[in-house]
Amino acid sequence: YNTELALHLLPQFLPRVQQQQQQQLSQEGGSQPSFTLPKIQFLTIFLGANDSCTPPSPQHVELNRYEQNIRTLIDMVHSPTSPTYSPETRIILICPPPVDEPRYALQRKEQGIRMDRDKDVTRQYAETCLRIGREYQAKNGQQQPEQHCQLDVIDTWGLVTERVERGQGTMSDYLNDGLHLASAGNDLIFEQIMKIIRGRYPEWDPDTLPMNTPWWRDLKDPKTELLLCANKI
Fold first, then answer.
1. In sequence order, what DSSP letters do the residues of 149-178 get, joined into one string?
2. How many angstroms separate the most distant Cα atoms in the chain?
3. What are the residues whose beta carbons fall under 8 Å from the beta carbon of 47, sequence distance 6 or more?
4. Among 110, 128, 153, 165, which is 20 to 30 Å from 211 by CA?
């Protein structure tokens, strides 16, 4: 998928402001709401590798349009005028990784498919994503409460490139086929996400989050203690 397709998908995952207001009014009135809306605490946006395909690839999205789309996706969540406004949702914007062009070109040649990636073109998309992220990041804490409309950005391109240049692995370690992430690439992004959560949102550190249910050894009345639904009796 690319950012054009994400524009259609993301609104379907987000609760609408009108629904949130209806739920709140129901709760304030002391009645049990007929529905419970999901609450999204963290949202990652990891797009750009496909947008940067070279024409005539059907996945290609022009750089200016890509920038506009990324901003639109962010604003769907963090703009007060958005019907899916959710200021409590923290966004982590992830830049596309580099392209190991020789390896990817060899694979495409073996498959009899034209080459549709250019590392310098993809770098422009990664740099655009990073610039957008830093722009929004500079606004962190400007709204009240301070935890509202928070955004962080992960410079995947820069981190992978820097590690390879330092001799901390090769492009083959980070990219399976010259394009898609290998284990080390996935580990790198996971490490960065956890660094953001543990550094800026320690209350959401999975190592310290309370359990939703008691330890099995501590259960005294499973019939009641294991009821998780909103309509507990």
1. T-EEEE-HHHHHHHHHHTTS--HHHHBSSS
2. 65
3. 1, 2, 3, 6, 69, 70, 73, 96
4. 153
Q: Do residues 93 and 70 make contact, with C-beta atoms less than 8 angstroms apart?
A: yes
Which of these, 96, 91, 15, 18, lies nearest to 59 by C-alpha position? 96
Q: Which residues of 8-21 are buried (b: 16+ CB within 10 A; e: fewer)?
A: eebeeebbeeeeee
pTM, 2 dp: 0.87
CA distance 122 to 104: 13
**Which residues have CB under 8 Å from 52's CB, separation 6+?**
60, 66, 96, 117, 118, 121, 122, 124, 125
Q: Give the angle subtended at the CA of 200 by the CAs of 194 and 206, to the nearest 5°.
A: 45
Residue with tokens 């034209």: 114
* C-alpha distance from residue 107 to each of 45, 65, 103, 159 (Å): 27, 29, 6, 25
Sheet of 90-94: strands edge to edge? 42-46, 90-94, 151-154
- Taking the C-alpha atoms of residue 188 and residue 184, their distance in angstroms, rounded to an integer, is 6
* DSSP structure string for 69-116: HHHHHHHHHH-TTSTT--TTPEEEEEPPPP--HHHHHHHHHHHT----
Say yes or no to pLDDT of 100 above 70.
Answer: yes
What is the C-alpha separation between 21 and 73, in angstroms, rounded?
22
Which residue type, as a one-letter code, is found at position 171? M
**Residue-level pLDDT at 193:** 98
Q: What percent of the chain has pLDDT over 90?
A: 74
